[in-house]
Amino acid sequence: MPAFDTDLIICGEFRHPRQMLDNQTYDGHVSIHDDKMAADLGFTGAPIEGPTHFSQFVPLLAEIFGDAWFESGCISSHYLNMVIEGEEVRAFAARPAAGAKITRIWAEKRDGTPVLTGTASIGPDHPASELDLRRAKLRPAEQLVILSELRVGQKGLVAESAMMDFDQNMGDLYPFSLNEKLAKITEPSPWYTAEHGASSPWGRAIIPLEMLSVLTQYTSREAGFRMKGPAVGLFADQEIKMIKGPLFVNQSYRLEREIVCLSESRRVESNWIMTSVYDNDTNELVAECLLNSATLKDSYANYAQDAAALGKTLAS
Known about the structure:
Layout: E1 9-11, E2 25-26, E3 29-30, H1 35-40, H2 54-65, H3 68-72, E4 73-79, E5 89-94, E6 102-109, E7 114-122, H4 130-136, E8 160-162, H5 178-182, H6 209-217, E9 233-242, E10 253-264, E11 268-279, E12 285-296, H7 303-309
Antiparallel strand pairs: 1-5, 2-3, 4-7, 4-9, 5-6, 6-7, 8-10, 9-12, 10-11, 11-12
C-alpha cells in the first residue's frame, strides 16, 4: 500500500492562444469569431476557437502516455467558457494510476475561470470518455427548429477527400495555412514542420492535434446537412480520437460523416456529427472526430415564426 493517496497533477505554462478566425465566413456571413458579431450576440469579444487549446495538452499527455498518445490518443472536451485573445490559459492533467489508460484534463484562465474540462485516454480499447458520459445523459430533442431537417443516423451525401499541406489555405471556414498556424501555435514542435518533420518517430511531419479539427471541417459543406439560417454556431463539445495515428501532412484522407445525436438547451440547438477519417492509400480507419456544433437560437431571425409553424411551444 502506498504511503499517500494523493492526486498528482502536471500542468504547462500560461500561454496566450491566438485568434485566427476573425475573417471566417460561412453561409454568406461572418461567424462568432468576428468582434462585431460576437458583440451583437452579447459576448465580450470574439472567442478563440476551442480546439486551439488542445495543443497545450499535447506535451502533458506525451509525458504521461509516451508515443502511444500520438498513435491512439483520445482527447474529449466539454467547452465551458470562451477565451478572448490576450487572455492567458494553462492546461492541466492528472497523473493516472500505473497502467491506467485514461486521465482527467482541464484548462483555466489566469484568474481561475474554467475553459474546458474532459478526459484523455489511449487505446486501442478506450475507457468511456467525457463525451461518452455526457451524451448518455442527453434527452432526445422534442422539436428542433433550426435543425428540423436533420435526423440521427443521417450520413453525409458523399465521401469527402481532404489533405493538409504546409502552405494550403484551408478555405472560408479556416482562412489560414498550416505554416501560418505553426507561426502562432502555443506549443511548437519540430515534428510539425517541413524542415524537421522527418525527425518524428514516424519519419514524416505530423498534423498538430488542434489542426485535425481544421482538416475534418475543411470539406464539411459537402455533407449536405441542411439547417435553417443564417444562424451563428459555436463548438460546445469536441472529441478527437486516434485509431491508427498520427495523421500526416500532405497525406490524402477520406472523410465520412454521420449525425449521431441531436439535442437542445434553452439557448442552442446542437448537432453532434461523427467524422470518420480513412487513409486513402490503405483504406484504414485512422481517426474519429466528434463535434457538437451548437447553434444559437437568438441568432436566427425567424426562430419564433418557424417554431410556431412547427407547433413548438417556446419557453417564456
